[in-house]
Please model this.
Amino acid sequence: MNEKPIKFRHNYFKLAKDEFTTIRGKAQFKRLKVGKTVWVETPTERFEAMIKGLELKRVADMGLDFLKADAEYPGFVIECPLDFATLLNSFRAPAWTQVTLESELTIITLKKII
Model:
């Protein structure tokens, strides 16, 4: 577990659950492995989690309920998939490829190790 932790900039509602998802860049699908233990860092805590699942999916195919559950936090509500893409783009450097509804991203399912 000498790799970079999976970091969260906000205290997303999902982080209160023992099992949750995070949506990251497409390259993570090849870099990460199911069963691997990783560190997770949030604004208020650091904990270990096991990768339970990895899936590649286009933003347009993720569904509004899934995107809301994955990315909402106090003060931020997703009303459409484009809101999710805008959130992801706010984390990316201007030179990086911007996320669109057609972007294929990695859905990582994590389970806290308690």
User: Anything to note?
Assistant: Strands lie at 6-7, 19-24, 37-41, 46-58, 104-112.
